Amino acid sequence: MSGEPDEADQHFPDEATPREVPDQAIPEFGLHDRTWSEDQWLGLLQTLVESGVGSWKDITALVLGHLNPSQVGTSLASSEGFKRRYGKGNTMKIVMEWVYQQTGRCADCGSRLELQADHIQGRESFTDPLDADFIENMILRCRRCNVIRRPSHEFGGLTYLTAEAALMWIMLVIRPRTLADFIRMCRLYGMTMSDIRMQEAWAIAHWLARAEPPAYGIENDKASSYDLLLWPDSAITRSDVDQPLLEGATRIYAAVPGSAVLGFLTLQDDGRMKFHEQRVAFIPFSTYSMGTRPPQALCIRYSAPDRKNSDPQMLTPLPPRGTTLVCHAVRLPNQIFRLVRGTETTGQDLEPGAPAYGRLVKTRIPPDEARLLVVNH
Predict the structure, then answer these.
(1) Burial state string for 260-284 with b = 16 or more CB within 10 A and e = fewer than 16
(2) From CA 253, how far away is CA 366, in angstroms rounded?
(3) How many domains in the chain?
(4) Does residue 28 fall inside a structural domain?
(5) Which domain holds residue 316?
């Protein structure tokens, strides 16, 4: 996730905002889905149909299609390992006898949808991967249970839905107002794929925001103002101007334009200071129903895993969360920040465009006397 909102995060003139979309009676159950009851799943499905996202015909056709164990047999029969072991003339017969003798349910979760033939003992445990291809080593698993066993899915099994379904779950249940918040929610949910997957899924938000009546709202940062809230862990979030103040939060700025920039200094362990700039449009909202997670839960930064060096992915606090916040100020696009000492008005002009995650500043000003002044550029 970059330090600035992506261009795909923009709001188009013919799209609804969150304030223009009627409230929908979707059950609130936090970010994760594993503990939902059948009645809650049914309620979500009914809400999606009533809002025009899909029809009962669409949903029924989709379920019927996923019940079909398409190519379970032919995928095995075409495997080079199976053909080498059983011979081209016998492979399909052996495979289909095995297919017919199965229960037709996933060995792990019991689902009948999207069944796939999976190895009991993975190919990676064989010197020759093709040696894993023998009929006694095969089992039926649904696509989700198959995928989460892969080493690349570090959070596999922590959530119920597959990634493609969870993308829609997060969008239509939690209803993020911006693409940046959508991506942050996906990371909290446990997704490890590239941001481009979230950007592609965000197209649904744009499509539904143009529906008549609109079924989704995308934030129009350029035409709106927000309150900025400071939390005890130094996290900074935003909320609507008319939003009641959440418990634990302190309102540090009111009615700040969405085009404005928040600047702040944080103190490092070695005593040096970092200067940060974050567009208000980049700052997470703290107005979502996130279950047991705190309102500032989206103040996170994601670092992708480095497979080559075996470094895992990381979720770290988005500054200034978890840091010592020295001072802060808000400027408009035609202004810059000036680092001054105490009540002085002259000092070091700070070039705009500092990373959201900060750059070190060279100054002799002690942190307890540092202040950011806003001046016209």
Answers:
(1) bbbbbbbbeeeeebbbbbbbbbbbb
(2) 25
(3) 3
(4) yes
(5) 224-376
Instruction: Say what the pTM is.
Output: 0.86
Give the pLDDT confidence of 183-217 residue by residue, as tens digits.
999 998 888 888 899 999 999 999 999 998 899 99
152, part of any domain: no
DSSP 223: G
Decide if 215 is inside a domain. Answer: no
> Span 171-175, mean pLDDT?
90
128 lies in the same domain as 177: no
How far apart CA 192 and CA 74 sit, in angstroms, is: 30
Q: Which residue has the tokens 């005890």?
A: 232
- Do 343 and 276 lie in one domain? The reply is yes
pLDDT category, 1, cuts 50, 70, 90?
very low
The amino acid that residue 322 corresponds to is G
| Residues 31 and 290: beta-carbon distance below 8 Å | yes
Residues 201 and 325 in one domain: no
Contact between 330 and 256 under an 8 Å Cβ cutoff? The reply is yes
Nearest 5 degrees, angle CA 39-CA 170-CA 242?
A: 100
Burial call 98-125: b when 16+ CB within 10 Å, e when fewer: bbeeeeeebebeebebbbbbbbeeeeee
Phi, psi of 346 (to 5 degrees): -105, 145
**Residue 309 domain-assigned?**
yes
Instruction: Supply the pLDDT for residue 156.
Output: 58
C-alpha 265/C-alpha 274 separation (Å) is 5
Q: Are 273 and 265 in contact (CB under 8 A)?
A: yes
121 and 268 share one domain: no
